[in-house]
Design a protein that fits this description.
8 helices, Rossmann fold
């Protein structure tokens, strides 16, 4: 686990970070965590034009693939071409390139393609259900949260994680990577953030 001494050493090395998706719930928490700890000399925020995720839902499968696969991979390819050493990606529990369902299949495909880019360090975060106070209303997510809340209470850190905890784990891994390629499950996200 990274210590305060490790963080200070990292700061002195003068690293620059970029955050893609900084207007999303996890992105907002990541920017807060980076602002609080200040591990980087500069943080570049990259976002799309103002666009509601619900607008993307209207685009169906193609819109989902464009956002969750194409944008992610193009960003990663540009980062790699710019000699980015460490790349952190938020995927999802259950990601599987061989799944018959579009969501886990797409997430799994992205994970495999990221590995092929050969970053010096690649951290893939697989959070469970993300707990946050969304500004936008997602009725399906609200229903799922109500139905699953008893499970979250019983399984705790194994099934859900707050975007704040996820962001803290990401900052720690950005400053102190663990191996060349690392897939970080929900339980480990909690452990890293502690």
């Amino acid at each position: 686990m990274a210590t305060e001494e490790d963080l200070e050493k990292f700061r002195k090395e003068g690293h620059v970070a970029f955050v893609v998706g900084y207007t999303g719930e996890t992105g907002k928490e990541l920017v807060k965590a980076l602002s609080a700890t200040k591990p980087f000399t500069r943080v570049v925020l990259i976002g799309r034009r103002k666009s509601s995720v619900t607008d993307k839902l209207g685009e169906g499968f193609e819109g989902f693939i464009k956002v969750d696969h194409d944008y992610v991979m193009r960003t990663a390819e540009l980062a790699r071409a710019s000699d980015c050493k460490r790349f952190l990606h938020v995927s999802s529990t259950g990601s599987d390139k061989n799944s018959c369902l579009l969501y886990p299949q797409t997430k799994g495909q992205v994970e495999e393609e990221l590995k092929d880019l050969q970053f010096e360090h690649l951290s893939i975060f697989r959070p469970g259900f993300l707990i946050c106070d969304r500004e936008e209303s997602r009725i399906g997510e609200k229903i799922a949260k109500c139905l699953c809340m008893p499970c979250f209470c019983c399984c705790g850190k194994y099934s859900a994680v707050s975007t704040e905890i996820l962001a803290h784990a990401m900052v720690r891994r950005a400053c102190h990577p663990n191996g060349k390629v690392e897939t970080i499950d929900n339980k480990t996200i909690h452990y890293i953030a502690e």
